[in-house]
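Hi team,

As requested, here is the filled-out complex form for the biotin run. I kept the field names the same as last time so the parser does not choke. Let me know if anything looks off before we queue the next batch.

— J.
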Amino acid sequence: MFFVPLFLSNLKTKKIARKIEYIRTTDSTNETIYKMFQNNTIKANNALITDNQTAGKGRRGNTWFSSNGKSLTFSFIIKDDNDLLIKKIPLISGIAIIEAIKKMTNIECQLKWPNDILYNSKKLGGVLIEKKEGHFIVGIGLNVNEASFERSIESKTCSIFSIINHSIQREALLAYIFNNFEALLNQELIEIIKKWESLCNHINTFVKFHNFQNMIEAKFIGLNEKGEARIEIGNNEKIFNSGIIEL
Ligand code: BTN
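And here is what came back:
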């Protein structure tokens, strides 16, 4: 059970997530919030959270697993009314989560480009951003109070519980994420890029970079002024705005 009044008592935003819908079960919060947006039951800046997501979507057509009542599984809508948002949102989503986890638990997580949340190189959370009808649908899945994971993912996945050995209040953590997200939205892109790079787990290291059908081993050297990935291949620098990094 997610207790909305407790969430609202920690929320300090002016606009984002002031209205949040909680539903016990749904297939995918990204899909459901979009349907609710289409039939006018949810508007820009509103959020939707569930305890039990049955068909979670990950990036690049992957499936996202979340545990009933243990994780944070939510989506929210941002109107695309500013050219910088497309560059800022992918970066600030990850930073907002990492700063919220730090505030609540003192754990220092890291980012894998563009916005995977890692701890000790294991995945703690992920972000799926979809653009529909002039709006961004930002979907976040974060492993919070899970004590164990399915065999198939346990070697590369972790939760906050698995790091600190006790449960934490999901309502406060979610409010801190939104508080940070809104504050970061108002920062300059250059400041956001610096912050992102300081949290990156693989800066100046060799990574496997998957872009469509191709895989290259190359050095990730940071972000350019637009927030795109700078990859050094031999003596040449290439810029990518999509792809998957394997560590
Ligand atoms: C990834 O790392 O591949 C992104 C995972 C995003 C999962 C979240 S959970 C809430 C929202 N609803 C979905 O169906 N997916 C996102």
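Two things worth flagging: The pocket of biotin is lined by residues 28-30, 53, 56-59, 62, 64, 73-75, 116, 126-128, 139-141 (CB under 6 Å). The chain is about 30% helix and 35% strand.

Thanks,
J.
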